Each structure stands twice: as C-alpha cells, then as structure tokens.
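Deliverable D4.2, example record:
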Amino acid sequence: MDRRSHWENVYHTKSATDVSWFEAEPTTSLSLIQSIAPGGRIIDVGGGASLLVDCLIAVGTWEVTVLDVSAAALELAQTRLQERAHRVKWIQADITEVQQLGTYDIWHDRAVFHFLTSLDDRAAYLAQLRRALRPGGYVVFGTFALDGPEKCSGLPVCRYDARSLAATLGADYSLVKKLEHSHPTPGGTTQRFTFAVFRRAV
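Output generated by the structure prediction step:
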C-alpha cells in the first residue's frame, strides 16, 4: 500500500479522535508558534484533521495553509470548521511530490517528518522546505523522540532529538528552542516527542 492509500484507509476506518496522535488541545505546538510570532503565513504539514488549524483561526492573525496526503483527513477538518473552512488554504498532496506551495513565515510539522525513513524522501522534503520557507522564517518540528515508539499506525518511523534534527536540516538552520514532550494517546499509552524550533538563515 502506498503512502496515500495507507492514510486514506486510516481515516476511513478510524475516528479522528481515536488515532494515537489525536490532541484535544494542541497546546505545545500552539505555544511554540505563538512564541515565535503573533501572526503571519503558516503551513501545517500533515495537519489533516488536527485541531491546530481551529486554534490558529481563532487567534485571527494567521494566514493558514493545511497540507495532508489524505483527502479524508482534510474533509474531516473542513466539515468541523464549517463556514470557517474558507479561511484556510487546503492542499491535498504528498509533501515529497507537491509542485508549488507558496512562501511561508512558519513551517509546522508534528505528523510527517518522522515517517520519512528513506534518504530520498527526506531529501525531497527538505528541498520543499527550502523552497517554501522564507529566509529568516521558522520551522517547528514535533517528531518522535529517541525514546519514542519505533512504529506508528503500523509504519516504521525515525526518531530524533534536537541535535539529530539540526544535523538533518543542515547549517542553514539554527536551533532556537527545544523541549521533550509526553503525549497521552486516546488509548491510554504515552508517546515521547521531541519538539524543536529552528530559524532559517537570513
């Protein structure tokens, strides 16, 4: 099963509130984003059915784009937002293949990067990041930590700490902030995450 088919199947067979990554309140991501800037252009890569978009819209100062490989996940978010959905740009695409994203002040990803286990996929992702993030812009990563799960949704993942994320991004990105986070899943387990904020060189 390819990446798109896998995630379509997940969102067609499970409730958005039952998947392990569900957060009723995405407080860690939101607080990191708000610590960087009070508003601007932001893309949530792999945002899917996440409630982060609801929070950003409520603030009222963000121009929000949500990208996800799953059309079903995006439809769940759009249905939830109802008339507010028109305030968001929605992109249904694989981040390693999409042609044009536009330019952003902040790139947020709590859902995709740790699933990219091949060098080619990571290289394609980082090329997209470089094209889309303006010089001086910020990357907010939430990835599985070194002591986090080895698999998620039946797929293998790569685990990171702030140092290995910095090495993967390269010298054009400087670490601004890092923290470790324990995420309680709907199933009653705990997943360890690394959150890190990087700034692209001007």
